[in-house]
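thread: overnight batch results

M.L. [08:02]
morning all. the overnight job finished for the chain we discussed friday. pasting input first so we're all looking at the same thing
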Amino acid sequence: MKSDSIRPRLSVSMTSFDYLLEFIALVGLFCLYYFTFNFYTSSPDIITLPFDLEGNADRYGSKSELIWILVISSLLYTGISVLQKYPHVYNYPFEIREDNALHQYTLIVRLLRVLKVVIIWIFFNILYTVRSGTDLYYGILIAVYVGVFLTVMISYFILASKHA
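M.L. [08:03]
and the structure it wrote out:
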């Protein structure tokens, strides 16, 4: 396997689907900011924080803890966005050569975009549940997001192996 120092450094162009994924992630991030600031200003100092998988409130906390949702999700969004620009440094399950590099890079960058969408919307659902105070069943939501991500992962390995 070639090391990343001699892998081709190619620019991965975006398709309309890639723009859609970026848009969905960005909308999720804006929704996080909107709901956090809206909820933060209108909520009491102590709020119920349902963090177990069944959506049950298991503790109370300061409303300032909501800011951590923004911090963590923003860092993950930014980190993944930066990583997307350097596909030549990733570990791949297949050898990267001149003839397959663009295809492999495109697939892995798209996988990162899907991961970004899933992460942002999981954080949004956590925040929305805290805000609404409902016993939303987290297990179902997480199963849906994990299912989407696993489907994309399996698709990635199938498509990547065709151009290995």
